[in-house]
Specification:
alpha/beta, TIM Barrel, 7-stranded parallel beta sheet, two-stranded antiparallel sheet, 9 strands, about 50% helix
């Protein structure tokens, strides 16, 4: 098996810098768009054969060192009693936002091996289909990001309702995050049991917090999730965006690998995180939309800052954008391998 990615997670020497891309399966690929013409995103997530097919598309087209499960981080919300759907042009919409102590008290517990069994079936199918060509990454949402979706009712610019609950009813906020952290921790352990070889925890919205608020309102709950993954023995990757002021606190929360976005130089970030952790990142995904020479110069700068140290996984600072040319992604992956 190509184990560069797993070796880098453990800060072991590798022959080439491993590379994979967040949202490497998505709308920039014509074969994915063809499937989306016939199926909604949630339909794909709920059908293991389709989800596995989409997961494998970039593995077949790109020179990547890991596959990441095609799913959605909001899936645990529905069995908790927080139904949602995707509305064209708006993204996910929570039908009944969670905004009061009574709303939180009504949340359910669930067994992910039953309620989310289709995700686990996808993982088992993928392990067979991949035939150990590259490792398979599972994933889930961090409690802060999931709680923000649940409270806001969908995407937000200011997280005003989320912060109003945090500051106005901190006990209720912590009860909500305790429910979410327990559910996500169990869900991610179930993914490992099904065959996931690494787990990424996405805290996509956590950059809305100050360091003090992160430590008070997010860190304890994220740590619970990452501790549960650590106990399985597989590498845990801890990712957020807008986290330039949060890197030290994220390292405290846990994770074998800390994701770094493009807003902070990789070498500066790694020095703050500590050399005892691996890092992932951190090219601006919009560079993939411009000229190839500028794209490769940006990639070279990231690799130069990594300095060939064990423990660097090349990735973007966030997901591939839908308008990205496939040829640019392919060229970037090849360049990383050649350079590293």
């Amino acid at each position: 098996m190509n184990d560069r990615f797993l070796r880098a997670c453990r800060r072991e020497p590798v022959d080439r810098t491993p590379v994979w891309f967040m949202r490497q399966a998505g709308r920039y690929m014509p074969e994915y768009r063809a499937i989306r013409e016939r199926h909604s995103l949630l339909d794909i997530c709920r059908q293991p054969e389709l989800a596995a097919e989409v997961t494998l598309q970039p593995v077949e087209r790109l020179d990547v060192d890991a596959a990441i499960l095609f799913s959605d981080l909001l899936l645990p919300l529905e069995p908790l009693g927080i139904p949602f759907d995707f509305v064209k042009g708006e993204g996910p919409v929570i039908h009944e936002p969670v905004r009061t102590a009574d709303d939180i008290a009504r949340l359910r517990t669930f067994e992910p091996r039953e309620s989310l069994g289709h995700v686990l079936a996808t993982i088992r199918l993928l392990r067979v289909e991949l035939s150990d060509r590259v490792p398979l990454i599972g994933f889930g949402g961090a409690p802060f990001t999931l709680a923000s979706y649940a409270v806001e009712g969908g995407p937000s610019s200011h997280y005003s309702r989320t912060k109003a609950l945090m500051y106005g009813e901190p006990d209720s906020w912590h009860r909500l995050c305790e429910s979410l952290s327990a559910a996500v921790a169990d869900y991610l352990v179930a993914q490992v049991e099904a065959g996931a070889q690494a787990i990424q925890v996405f805290d996509s919205w956590v950059g809305a917090l100050s360091p003090g608020d992160y430590r008070e309102f997010a860190l304890p709950h994220t740590r619970r999730v990452l501790d549960a993954v650590a106990a399985t023995g597989v590498p845990a990757l801890h990712f957020g965006t807008g986290t330039a002021t949060l890197l030290e606190a994220m390292a405290e929360a846990g994770g074998d690998v800390i994701g770094v976005d493009w807003r902070v130089p990789l070498d500066d970030a790694w020095a703050r995180i500590g050399t005892g952790r691996a890092v992932q990142g951190n090219l601006d995904p919009t560079l993939l939309l411009g000229r190839v020479d500028r794209l490769l110069a940006g990639a070279q700068d990231v690799l130069r800052r990594a300095g060939g140290q064990p423990g660097h996984i090349f990735n973007l600072g966030h997901g591939i954008l839908p308008e990205t040319p496939v040829s640019h992604v392919r060229t970037l992956a090849r360049f990383v391998h050649q350079y590293g």
